[in-house]
Amino acid sequence: MVMPMTSEITGARAERAHATRELILTAAERLFAEHGVFAVSNRQVSEAAGQGNNTAVGYHFGTKADLVRAIARRHSGQIEEIRRRMLAGIGDSTDPRDWIGCLVTPVAEHLATLGSPTWFARFGAQVMTDPALRPIMVEESLTSPSLVRIVEGLHRCLPDLPADVRAERGDMARQLLVHMVAERERALAEGTPTPRSTWHDAATGLIDALAGIWLAPVTPGPDEGKGP
């Protein structure tokens, strides 16, 4: 009888651990998207992932915050790759729509490649509305070199926009992007009608709306233009 080598045993264990982690990530993403992060227990995630051991989530990921971060990173690599490709195509464009497209299209394109149903957009919306978990998503965004470059490029196209208005419209844009993508994902999962037939068309509509926000005129405040 030929006994398996230690390296083979180690490799098999690593493969099993990886497969288990993927099952947990998929189950957690779906449950968090549908019910909210803190409404779902680790036990429920373990059961949905087909794990008899209710401590599987803690064993493989640690805290719930660690699990949320792992789900975000599961998608960020593909989205980052699309962003880099788009950035290479626009160069040093002075058209705000080009930079807005680099914000919107990578997310929509990534979701389109996942098939249906998907849960990542609704997961992101749940996390971004949770005060305890929102910093995780913000932190992950700040580590994206392409995203930092996109924001800088957009701001260069709008040099006359006051800093406070720029910050305000950035918040508006983020809210619209996160929640409109999540709303379309929900509708697709439930089989209800959507305004646009494809993710590509939905991205186009969202780019139009965001361009309207960023390029809208600024109403002067009551004290602006007055002398001392």
From TrEMBL:
Keyword line: DNA-binding, Transcription, Transcription regulation
Q: Which GO terms describe its molecular function?
A: DNA-binding transcription factor activity; transcription cis-regulatory region binding
Gene3D superfamilies assigned to the protein according to its UniProt record, in alphabetical order? Tetracycline Repressor, domain 2
Segments forming domain PsrA tetracyclin repressor-like C-terminal: 102-212
Q: Which domain of life is it from?
A: Bacteria
Question: Which residues belong to any copy of the HTH tetR-type domain?
Answer: 24-71
What InterPro entries does this protein map onto?
Homeodomain-like_sf, HTH-type_TetR-like_transc_reg, HTH_TetR, PsrA_TetR_C
Cite a single Pfam family from the UniProt record. TetR_N
Query: Coiled-coil regions in this chain?
Result: none
Q: Do the record's keywords include Ribosomal protein?
A: no
Q: What is this protein called?
A: TetR family transcriptional regulator
UniProt organism field:
Amycolatopsis decaplanina DSM 44594
